[in-house]
Design brief:
alpha/beta
C-alpha cells in the first residue's frame, strides 16, 4: 500500500530498517538521488529496504551496525568459522604454559582483562596487523583498511542532517575515517580508532603507537619482514605501565 504524501516514520522504525540493512554482510546501499549516493547493483531485498527508507522520509535515523558493514573492507570476523578466534594458535604467542592452556580452552581469553593485566603481548601480537590496518593513514599505507559504502552512507546521512546516532558493535573504528562526528558515535565495545593506557586512561597518539607496535611487537603472521623476533611491551607515556592498547573493551573489565 502506498504511503500518504508527507508521511513520517517513527524513529524506531528507522532504527530497525537500518539494522536490517546494515547487518547483511557485504551489502551495498542504493537510495534516491536526494541522498547523492551513486546507484550500485544489489539484491532486490536490500533495494526495497533502501527505497522504503527514502519513501518514509524519516526526520532522523539511528544506525545499529555489526560485522556486516566491515567484512567488505577485508576485516576478519572474530567468531565465524575461519575467524580470529577459530584460527587462534596460542603456541605462537608470547605466553607461559598456563596462559596458553587458558587460551586453548577459551580463545576469548586472549582479549581478557585477566590476561592483559598480567601479560599484554598476546593481545598485541594477535591484533598487530588489524591495529596497524585500522590506525594507518589510508592515503599513505596500501595495507590500511578503508571504510565501505555503508560507512559512507552513514556520513551522507550526517551531511543531510538525518543522523541521530550510530550504535556499533564493531571495534574497527572505520566510521571515524569517514569524518562522521565522534559525538554521534557509540562504539559499545570500544574502538581501535583511539589508543589509551588501561591503567591511567592517558591517551597515546595513534601514529606513535603504530611506530611502537612495529618496533616492539613480533609478527606471528609472517607478513612483516621488518618486525622484531621477540616482543617487548609498550609503556604508557605518563604512568610507565605496559598497559597501552586500543580503547576496546576487554572481557572481564569493569
Amino acid at each position: 500500500m502506498p504511503l500518504p504524501r508527507g508521511a513520517r516514520t517513527h524513529p524506531l522504525v528507522a532504527v530497525l530498517l537500518c539494522f536490517v540493512l546494515l547487518c547483511i554482510p557485504g551489502a551495498s546501499l542504493s537510495v534516491s538521488t536526494a541522498f547523492c549516493v551513486p546507484a550500485v547493483k544489489m539484491s532486490s531485498a536490500v533495494g526495497k529496504i533502501a527505497d522504503l527508507i527514502s519513501h518514509l522520509k524519516p526526520k532522523s535515523i539511528c544506525f545499529l551496525t555489526g560485522a556486516g558493514v566491515s567484512v567488505a573492507a577485508g576485516i576478519p570476523d572474530f567468531r565465524s568459522p575461519g575467524g580470529m578466534y577459530d584460527t587462534l594458535r596460542p603456541e605462537l604467542l608470547t605466553a607461559n604454559q598456563m596462559e596458553r592452556r587458558a587460551m586453548q580452552a577459551d580463545p576469548t581469553a586472549v582479549v581478557s582483562w585477566d590476561l592483559f593485566r598480567q601479560n599484554q603481548l598476546p593481545y598485541l601480537e594477535l591484533r598487530r596487523p588489524f591495529i596497524l590496518g585500522v590506525l594507518s593513514d589510508q592515503a599513505k599505507d596500501k595495507d590500511a583498511y578503508r571504510p565501505t559504502l555503508s560507512h559512507f552512507f552513514i556520513r551522507v546521512c550526517h551531511d543531510k542532517g538525518l543522523l541521530r546516532r550510530v550504535y556499533t558493535q564493531n571495534i574497527d573504528g572505520l566510521d571515524y575515517k569517514t569524518g562522521t562526528p565522534t559525538e554521534s558515535q557509540i562504539p559499545v565495545h570500544g574502538s581501535l580508532g583511539r589508543v589509551q593506557c588501561e591503567g591511567c586512561k592517558t591517551p597515546y597518539p595513534s601514529p606513535d603507537f603504530c611506530d611502537a607496535l612495529r618496533k616492539n611487537v613480533k609478527d606471528i603472521y609472517g607478513i612483516d619482514a621488518t618486525a622484531p623476533t621477540e616482543s617487548t611491551p609498550v609503556p604508557c607515556i605518563k604512568c610507565g605501565k605496559p598497559l597501552v592498547k586500543p580503547a576496546t573493551v576487554l572481557y572481564g573489565r569493569r
